[in-house]
């Protein structure tokens, strides 16, 4: 039997695409009526900002300025889970496509769309800690720096990335790797339960006991699939009074040797220590390691010895309170906490938006000298062009690799590290070229959260052998594939 929702959705989309499409007799009038009846946007209690209203461009834009030309018809800001249900039900009934937005940091701009409705979850950002249960329940629109701050105030944390304004939802649903990763795992690995509004308009609790398939899928299956998560409950970890930070750097001429030393050391270091190797196209530190250690800086002399043995290393270390350390990695040590938010996303936020694109790889066997040289040369070559770039290496191992590839949707558990090729303000051909050059040395996997809209075979690259199960779950939860985007499961 044909589904009336699908048919209305088709008519609205067809009417939006071209009036010259061969629609059935009378369909044009039906489509116009549907568009008219939906013109006010979803009937939620929260704010609905319509295209053309004052403030609309700021409300519509995501973090990556490359997508400023993509404009939805409405940006809806629900107040709570009930409002999210209303918006989803309305979107399904009207055939209006929807994209959820948490922090708006999707590399590919997947939290916006042309026409349709953006569901901006910024009002759902409470963080409630239950110290007795050692859990925290976090609203799906919270930004990472707010999560770190609320948790640190209670002496606990969750592992997550270092960009302050990344949203918890996209981050956790795609994995979530940061400088506590080898100690506590990915953000997704600490998810105990979630509340999600599915395409049938229900609000489901998802955990090991309730809807276990969906619980499996939400831990790495990628934001935008399955429904709109309204809150996450995470396991929290006590943090010491201080943690140690370190930054080592070398001249470009030592970059390949430093990378050799880092890859032999970082994935096998003690779990308390997580680090990132950087090849920067510009600036005073062409080759650099940044890292965090759950212990005192006085231990670092011995722990970092394999790196400092590489000639011409410059070494800086120190101890910081946990929140101060997160502000330091966020680049916010010298600005106020309020300012440490992206402009336009919170009142007083001053961090600028950026224009960037990226690709990623996973590495399971140490890179030979030829590959390391190619990477160092590529970073230097990017420095000769306009714009800038970097090649970043996130160390895996530790708690991340202690989980089996099929135990959650996040499959990349047997690797040494993840490489991210990142370019700002142009550099698309550079990106493709270094990605091509590395094919012989990598697993073929890619990290969903470093989303690459040009990646062919993304299903296998992001999800490997977990894709089949993800597809089955998506078909069961969202049979008409309402929650859809260019790299959605089932596309
Ligand atoms: C500057 C910067 C630094 C970064 N640093 C790191 C890092 O250190 N470690 C790391 O692992 N990653 C990092 N990332 C990548 C980041 O984890 C992803 O871009 C992540 O998806 C962003 O989440 P978001 O909520 O901000 O994005 P959004 O654009 O809001 O959402 C991303 C995707 O999730 C969907 N989504 C959003 N909210 C929901 C919801 N409530 N329910 C269901 N789907 C939803 C969106 O529709 C979209 O498809 C970084 C990104 C940037 C731009």
Task: Describe the protein's architecture and organization.
By secondary structure, the chain is of the alpha+beta class. It has three domains: 4-119, 2-Layer Sandwich (Uridine Diphospho-n-acetylenolpyruvylglucosamine Reductase, domain 2), CATH 3.30.43; 127-239, Uridine Diphospho-n-acetylenolpyruvylglucosamine Reductase, domain 3 (2-Layer Sandwich), CATH 3.30.465.10; 242-464, 3-Layer(aba) Sandwich (Vanillyl-alcohol Oxidase, Chain A, domain 3), CATH 3.40.462.20. Helix content is 29%, strand content 21%. It has a seven-stranded antiparallel sheet. A five-stranded antiparallel sheet has the order 5-6-10-8-9. The model is unreliable at 1-36 (pLDDT under 50). The chain binds flavin-adenine dinucleotide (FAD).
């Amino acid at each position: 039997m044909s589904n009336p929702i699908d048919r209305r959705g088709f008519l609205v989309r067809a009417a939006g695409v071209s009036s010259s499409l061969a629609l059935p007799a009378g369909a044009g009038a039906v489509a116009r009526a549907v568009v008219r009846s939906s013109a006010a946007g979803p009937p939620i209690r929260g704010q609905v900002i319509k295209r053309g209203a004052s403030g609309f461009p700021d409300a519509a834009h995501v973090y990556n300025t490359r997508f400023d030309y993509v404009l939805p018809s409405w940006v809806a800001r629900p107040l709570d889970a009930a409002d999210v249900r209303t918006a989803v039900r309305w979107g399904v009934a009207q055939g209006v496509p929807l994209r959820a937005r948490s922090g708006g940091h999707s590399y590919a701009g997947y939290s916006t769309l042309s026409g349709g409705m953006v569901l901006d979850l910024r009002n759902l950002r409470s963080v409630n800690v239950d110290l007795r249960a050692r859990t925290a329940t976090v609203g799906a629109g919270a930004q990472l720096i707010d999560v770190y701050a609320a948790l640190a105030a209670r002496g606990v944390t969750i592992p997550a990335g270092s960009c302050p304004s990344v949203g918890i939802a996209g981050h956790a649903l795609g994995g979530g790797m940061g400088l506590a990763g080898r100690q506590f795992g990915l953000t997704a690995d600490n998810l105990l339960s979630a509340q999600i509004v599915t395409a049938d308009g229900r609000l489901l609790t998802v955990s090991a006991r309730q809807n276990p398939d969906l619980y499996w899928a939400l831990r790495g299956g990628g934001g935008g699939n399955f429904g709109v998560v309204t809150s996450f409950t995470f396991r929290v970890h006590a943090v010491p009074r201080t943690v140690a930070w370190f930054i080592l750097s070398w001249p470009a001429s030592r970059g390949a040797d430093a990378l050799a030393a880092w890859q032999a050391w970082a994935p096998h270091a003690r779990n308390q220590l997580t680090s990132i190797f950087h090849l920067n196209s510009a600036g005073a530190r062409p080759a650099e390691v940044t890292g965090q250690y759950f212990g005192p800086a006085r231990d670092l002399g011995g722990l970092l010895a394999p790196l400092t043995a590489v000639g011409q290393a410059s070494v800086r270390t120190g101890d910081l309170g946990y929140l101060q350390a997160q502000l330091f990695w966020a680049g916010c040590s010298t600005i106020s906490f309020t300012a440490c938010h992206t402009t336009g996303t919170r009142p007083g936020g001053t961090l600028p938006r950026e224009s960037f694109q990226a690709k990623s790889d996973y590495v399971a066997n140490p890179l030979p000298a030829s590959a390391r040289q190619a990477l160092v040369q590529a970073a230097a070559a990017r420095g000769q062009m306009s714009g800038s770039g970097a090649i970043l290496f996130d160390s895996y191992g530790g708690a991340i690799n202690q989980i089996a590839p099929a135990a959650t949707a996040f499959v990349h558990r047997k690797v040494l590290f993840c490489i991210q090729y990142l370019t700002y303000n142009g550099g698309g051909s550079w990106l493709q070229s270094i990605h091509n050059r590395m094919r012989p040395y990598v697993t073929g996997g890619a990290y969903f959260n470093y989303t690459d809209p040009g990646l062919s075979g993304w299903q296998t690259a992001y999800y490997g052998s977990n894709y089949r199960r993800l597809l089955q779950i998506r078909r069961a939860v969202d049979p008409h594939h309402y929650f859809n985007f260019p790299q959605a499961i089932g596309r």
